[in-house]
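Re: the pair you flagged

First of the two:
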Amino acid sequence: MIKTIFFDIGGVLLNIHPDRTIKHLSDFTKLSEEEIIDVFPEEEHHRYERGEISGSEFFKAVKRELPISNNLTEEQFWKAWSLLVGEETEVVKIMNNLTTKHPVWLLSNTNPYHILEEERFKLFDKITGGIYSFEVGSRKPEEDIYIKALEIAGVTAEKSLFIDDLIENVEMAKSLNMNAIQFKSISDLNEQIGKFLQL
């Protein structure tokens, strides 16, 4: 029997728009979008999401990788970064309905800016809590974040259900004996959740 449900945020509960962030960085720096994409420091981004570096250090890493002529300011960078997270999806309604009968947690690769500064995250007022990569020092699909999520939520893997849009994250959850669904569409999600909750 499923006791606890974990939802990913980006791509499931909220739409994400990396194209908007890149477009604004391009506008601010006068560099092409392709130039920015090519040099964006993904590993430093991952370190920021693990809480290993500060927001200021992350900004400096991005600026350092851009061509030397760029004039990007930290204020401009965070303005562009804020555009990454977009509007809520229909999955929020599904999640809120589930909170009436089950503890529901967020399990997300995210960073202090998007969790602590964004007004949009106040949407999630019915959930039990959240496990965020920057707080636990691990990010999906790394094994540790799932283990910590289960510990924090006080549930065994077999009695949990995890929902994420990325197959690599879903497969890691399954390898740890969690029940898991890859989010593809609202209709498929409703069907899959129904099957799991009947067990």
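Second of the two:
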Amino acid sequence: MGRGQRFGAFLSALVAFAVGVTVMLSLLLGDNPALFGNQPGSDELARRLALPADALLRLVAIFLALSIVIGIANLLFVHVSRLKSGKFYSAVLLASFGFTVFWYVTRQGDTSLLEAVQLPIESALAALLFVSLVHGGSRVMSKRGDLWGLLFVAVVVLVLLGSLPLAELAPLQAWSDWLMRIPVSAGARAMLLGIALGIVTAGLRALLGQDRSYRG
């Protein structure tokens, strides 16, 4: 790594550290005016300390919005260029995009078209999930016919049957609701805790300049 690359990596790490510390301190101090006691003007001081974080977060939101717009524009340009080679799905995508924009503009923000498209897609994804679970259960039983494999298949069947709106399956629906409310909720919370710890670890590595993207 040359001297210029090392200086660039150091500068990137320094900027990331400065921005991260500024946002962290601004959020901590700005959201807790009680830290300054009951002195006159503590709320105003907290509001001023929160201004850097608000400005930086709004800047990030602007960059994210620009990234989305650039991504959509790039997608459209790519499919326009593919029309010359007779790609049928490119024509379908462009026509769908134009029709959706036209509908939204002429209907003044009416989302009925979006719902009419989104609900069938969600239903199709739910059906694919059902097929995937059944296929996964059959593969588990064929390759691992032990107690844990049997428990997995039993839970899948119980949840799927409990999701059916049939009065005859009311006992199964109660068990399915219990599974979704307690074990599944506990697993989801554990995953969220793991994601939070991963985010904190990644943030600390970025603040300390240990992230490889800053070292080149």
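Helices lie at 3-30, 42-82, 88-106, 112-143, 147-162, 170-181, 183-207, 212-215.

-B.
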